[in-house]
Design goal:
Layout lengths: L3 H21 L13 H24 L11 E5 L5 E5 L2 E4 L3 H7 L6 E5 L33 E4 L7 E4 L7 E2 L2 E6 L2 E6 L2 E5 L4 H7 L7 E3 L2 H4 L3 E2 L30 E5 L5 E6 L5 E4 L1 H10 L6 E2 L31 E9 L5 E9 L5 E4 L4 E7 L7 E5 L4 E3 L4 H7 L8 E4 L14 H9 L2
Parallel strand pairs: 1-4, 6-19, 8-11, 10-12, 13-16, 20-23
Antiparallel strand pairs: 1-2, 2-3, 5-6, 5-17, 7-18, 8-9, 9-10, 13-14, 14-15, 17-18, 20-21, 21-22
Amino acid sequence: MASNRDILNAQRFNRQRLVMAFVAGTPGGREVEPSGTVRPLVGGVAVTLVILLVAFVVGRFTSSLPDGWEDSTLVVVRDEGTRYVTIDGRLRPITNLASARLLAESGSFQEVSVSADTLDGIERGSRVGLEDAPEELPGSDSLVSQGWSACSTTSTATSAFLGTSPQGQAAADHALVSVEGTIYLVAEGRSHEVPAEVSGAVLLALGLDSEPVVEVDATWLNLFDQGSVIEPFTLPEAGTPADALASTVEDAVSGMLLSVTDTSGEPRFYLVQDDGTLARLTEVEVDMYELGNPEVQAREVSAADLAQVATAEAGSPRDWPPVLGAGVGEGQSVCAVLQVDGSGGFTTGLGTADQLGDGGVSVEGGTGALVRATSGGSAGTVFLVTDAGRAWALGGDPVDTLQRLGYSEEDVASVPSPWLALFPTGPELSSQAVWEGVAQQ
């Protein structure tokens, strides 16, 4: 039997062994490694994700209608796509998104997605909404105000583009087009009719006799301002002595065409007017004057000969293009391009594109336009254009209609009214129109 001394020594040994285990390591000689901070952190994140996932799943299958759902709410049935608009606590199938917004009180529209079970027990009503109204609406940040163009096609119908461009589009200076047999010279934003009785001679004089004449429809031509007819012109009192030139130009008479070579070596042409003044002519005006006066030949004079003579406007229309540059090539489409000048005004430029086969409307997907069709002023009907390639006029109070559709007046851009004629139109959009349909049911 162990003595008290043996027991005391054993206790001291165990105490020393325990102290050494804490200070120097385990009895087996292996160091006790302190646990790191990464493992607990990862575990905490994992637990958090599990909690969030559970909350999402619970919310997914236990959805409910929000407060105030009884009116001005678009309810979408999850996994089905069925859409209802709420009116006085009843679910009414809705034709399209535009109608749902127009039925809602201004500023009160809300959209909610719920499961079919959530709608159990709620009274249903008949289908409401405007037929043929926009199915979807572009967001205010997806509205475009530039990128309008319209091109001819092989079928004569016009192909319109908004926010996108036809393939191979390039700039052009002028084009010859025809509408129902009448030829027009289009240049510098204007269309100039070429009378049928002189069209051959005019095109020959202008050097356009070999250029293709592209057939277009009247809708395309109306995108350009109507200019003066291009035809030969004369002076009514030609042959009257020009006393102001008598001392420098021999036998000077009205109707005489004078040529002065400038410092660059290019000729400048002046027409002696009936009152003895001089009118400088452009290349096109010279061609038309010589065509109308075959016997006239330009006389070369010096700048000094004309220094003391007053200048005036020519007898020809002043909106003719001064010179004709690059035209439209064979097999190309001719395009009208809406341009905004530095003052905020509009001009219609000219371009070409690869040949287009059919007419139609192409709008960049997901975009649209909110425009006021103007005729030079600030007034005009507001239209909504969507990527469906159609335009809808906003009726009723335009400001109220804009707000109901989720827009503001700042979103509206101005566009010349002929451009809206390129788009097929739908029914007028207004709260009154859609509520009239509800009242009739």
